[in-house]
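Here is a complete protein record:
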Amino acid sequence: MIRIVLLLILSAVCFRLGAEDNKALPMISKVLNLYLEDKAGEAQWEAMENIKKAEEKGASKTEILLLKYLGNASDAKEWNIYFAAEKSPSLVPFISLCIFVRKAAMEKELDALDLEICVNNYLADAKAFKSKETDIWNPKAELWKKWAAGNMKYVDGLPPLLNRKSRKFETSGTAVKPSVAVDFYNMSLSDFKQSRKPFSARPRPAGMDFDPKALQKYIDTLPSKELKVAEARRCNYLNKTKKYIIRLLERSPYTGEIKLKNASIKGTVTMANENVLRISNGNSQKNKNCKWDDLAFEQYINFFNFYGNQRAEISGGSVSREESKHFAAEDFLLLAVLCDWYGRYDDAIKYLKRAIDLSPKIKDEAYSIIAAF
């Protein structure tokens, strides 16, 4: 009840203060959409990655706090956000929106009434402070209100996250059908190779430094719109690979076998940036720097196996074992796309299966991104 009253008070303040220049709302919206696409791991990474960019743009403290909250940062709690909104009242609708989406994504046991309150607060606040952003979110929120008010029973048009969360309440005949008919899980290697023939001219830079112009030039050569769209979507996955690995290394150093093009050593990657990786082998006081180009492709597989397996084993805290396995599945799906792009088709199939085995609900997304068209 305190939450509802506070939001209503802040909504009234919105009329007095007028519009604000919310510079980070597009970033926040992108993160929300990733959550709704059932990509919680990617959403959290995107949120944390955008904090510095938002600060450089002069975003408000409330916007920064919302990004931290969506990124699951330890210093951003629900109650912090409500009080921060006093200085940014036009963000009040988005506070309710962020809380609704994050609860739906992260809580083990959902409370339908709690979610209904969140979405009702959003709709009320969106009327109090109308904007082009609220115009975009309002129709979606109306559907979510219907879903929450119906005790989270399945309704048509739900995003993947809410669709998954409502499955245990579904009646027969309402399950979502796979969007791609091809069964990649059971496909033979020869058939998979055959399906990749249209993509034989893919640019494959050694250090994962994809040149946008080269990618566009290649995509323009593909014979159909369907192939171009499918390949462009895979490019979006690839473009984040190096930054994602750097982010993982910042949080936890990689230790194990390090495969270079001309050698293989055991050691620890203690840090990395866009240009180099620093390796310590434990036998010398000196660290070895190597360029990304020096890595054998197998080392990218090592990185994803190292961190993906770690995630798959995490349990406890605010993240359920199921959610941890889903985050790991997202990592292995990214690895499958990477292997596919670089012509490692046997590994692509292997890690596609690994992703689906860890989290069967990722199957539709996996098939969609791997499909030739």
User: Anything to note?
Assistant: The first strand starts at residue 254 and ends at 259. The radius of gyration is 22 Å. The chain has two domains: 1-11+21-171, 225-371. The chain has a mean pLDDT of 82.
